[in-house]
Design brief:
By secondary structure, this protein is mainly alpha-helical. Helices cover 47% and strands 11% of the residues. Helix 4 runs antiparallel to helix 6 and helix 13 packs antiparallel against helix 14. Bound molecules: zinc ion.
Length: 434
Amino acid sequence: MARQEADCRALIEARGWAVGDVYRDNDTSAYSGRVRPEYERLLTDIEAGNVRAVVAWHGDRLHRSPRELERFIDLAERTGLRIETVKAGTVDLSTASGRAVARTLGAWARFESEHKSDRIRRKLAENAAAGKPHGGLRPFGWEPDKMTIRESEAAVLRESANRILAGEPIRAIIRDLNERGLFNASGTPWTHPTFRKVIINPRHAGLRFTNGQEVGPAAWPAIIEPETWRAVSRTLTNPERVTTPGRGGKLHLLSGIAFCGVCGAPLRVGHSKSTKAYRCFVKACVSRRSDYFEEYVEEIIIERLSRPDAAALLVSDDDGGERERAAQEAERVRHRLDEAALAFAGGLITARQLSTITEQLRPQLADLEAAAAPPPDRAKVLGRLIGSPDVRKAWESLNRDAQRAVVRLLLSITVNRGRRGPGWSVDGIEIEWR
Ligand SMILES: [Zn+2]
């Protein structure tokens, strides 16, 4: 205790500040829930405007629970308080890391949601409202109160989501909607940017976002199931997707669809030496030449769809179990992201550590969300292939998104370590029909 105070005083001196007051609480056990009179006195003094900066030995000495930290950040935001800790550095809301703290307020809301904190809910509603596009305009799909679904437009949103997931090009969907006179909220025909903006609005999934971070369920109902919306929004925001109108996009056929049999991570295409190869995204446990691998999978699909009983593929025996597991796992990863944000806000980890954790978890989350998405209408995905006199030709005429939708729908692909040696080998490639 004395040592901690000495460290704090040294820091204050180093900053060239003067000690205004010292607040000592003897209960050091974290999360005891006991009232700390000195902590309360500190808050009162900050509130009264008598404190310009707080120096603590460590963030966890200052706030022992999310609730306390939340209250503290609130206070600091209002009073422009500067916060310094000996062990974890500056938590200053006028700095970049401090602003990140403010951004993690959303994470608190998730944490606090069980407690139904009305105050936080109001605050987040305000935040969400502040981030809404084009001022007061009614969002497409919603009545002007922004809480009531306008069914005629909601139907357009649901239909569009399904068509996007089935791999239909955005351009084609927009043309069709405009031809049917199903215009946007201002009653004018859709353009590519307005359509995209409307579709990826999380409000349709009944989700609240603050500063690009999902912060939990909204007060309004959902038009599109959250997992469906996530899949759609991921499809539209995928950086690998080339959005040039008229082109199907350049996403690789199997990336994020085939998985590593060693560690379970999705495979992505990377360059190894002179050839492009699918590789385990996390640890590079396995790899396969991309051109041969894609051809191999394409042949399997074309062969199966050319059989007389291809129509049997239209019936799914998917019981949803796998999706349910992926959804649960996705929820756990989201929780870990929140916890990391909390740890950062509490001064337990640095901004750099936070971003390392985030960079590791985000792609995992994206893949899990993809696996959790409800299956698109099988007839929509397979329609052009089944019963086609020339399945190969029909397959080749599909754009990349549509082909990916077919592979995702039909196959579960796992790549294990194969026989050692150069060249291509199907050894270790496990393909199962879904
Ligand atoms: Zn792996």
